[in-house]
Every structure is written in structure tokens, then in C-alpha cells.
Amino acid sequence: MAAKTLIKYFENLLPLEEEEKAVVEEAFSERQIKRKQFILQEGDICKHHTFVVQGCFRMYMVDEKGKEHNLQFAIENWWITDIGSFYSEEPSRLYIEALEPSIVLQLKKEDQLKLFDNNLKFNQIFRSLTEKALVSAHRRILEIISSTAEERYLDFLKRYPYFFNRISNVQIASYLGVTPEFLSTIRKKIVRY
Q1: How far apart are alpha carbons 185 and 126 in whole angstroms?
Q2: CATH says 2-145 is which class?
């Protein structure tokens, strides 16, 4: 059952009582997502925090020239949400698309607020998740403004080795802010060393 995966994830952060586990099972909705199916599209308001039980997703935007820019990938035991749209309830500029057939658990904002009101532990858990996401976003911004493309690629290899059999080079290039051709050049250069 998908909820057991999420409960185990939460318990790695803080132990849960039996009634708290039941609350998790009740608050989150399980969804089966097909490959290439969207759970968020530009112009929609992000209504859920999404926990990936199985599968792989990407979050991206499309610029005015039609070019896609990948902002995030998410695999098992990761979260993917347009947090700005979720909290502001304003239309998103982002897309979240399944790259593989997937199973997710989703939490609506009103259910999240109930969790927070009724149990301090969930407030702590989600605060921790938000802090980790903020640290990751800051690290990514710093890499983009202060690292070469080759350094970004090497860092990506080191941090996310499990993505390479699941995400195309085109997707990785977009995430790194380079063309697929330039990424190919970087990869060939690295192999020679």
C-alpha cells in the first residue's frame, strides 16, 4: 500500500503514533499517473503536495520562445510541488509531467492545514521539508551563477547518479542550462580524462 511508504518516510523524520499513521492514510489520496501525463499545467493552480511512491517526474517551464527549462526532477520518496502556486493560490507558470508510469500520494492544502492544526508533529515534518527544499534551491541558484557547465554536470553526476538511466540527456541538458550538443561535448571531454 502506497501510504505505508509515506509513513515510513515520515518516521525517518519523526516517529508516528498509530493514530497519526491513520491520519496520514486518510489525508493523502493515491493516484496512478501514466507516462507523459501532467499533474500540473501552466495556468492551473497547484492544489496538492505530491509525494512520489513510484516513478519519475519533471517540473519545468516553457519560455516565450517555446523552449523548455527543467527546474526539478523527482523520483521515489521525493516531493514535487509548485510551492509558490500552492501557497499563493495563483496560477502556475510550471508543468509537472510524469516521465514514467507512476504512483503518487497527494495532499490538498485544506488537509495539510488540518494536519498542522491537529498535530504539531506534521507541522515540524513539513517545516523540515520546506527548509530542505529552500537549501536545495539556494544551492542550485549558486551553482547556476558561479559554476561552469562542466562543473554543474559533474555535480549533477555526483548528487544524482540514479537519474542517468531514467532521464534523457536532453532533459539533463535542460536542467543544467546547456544544449544537448554542448552536454555531449562535456561528456566526451570527461570520458577522455
Answers
A1: 41
A2: mainly beta
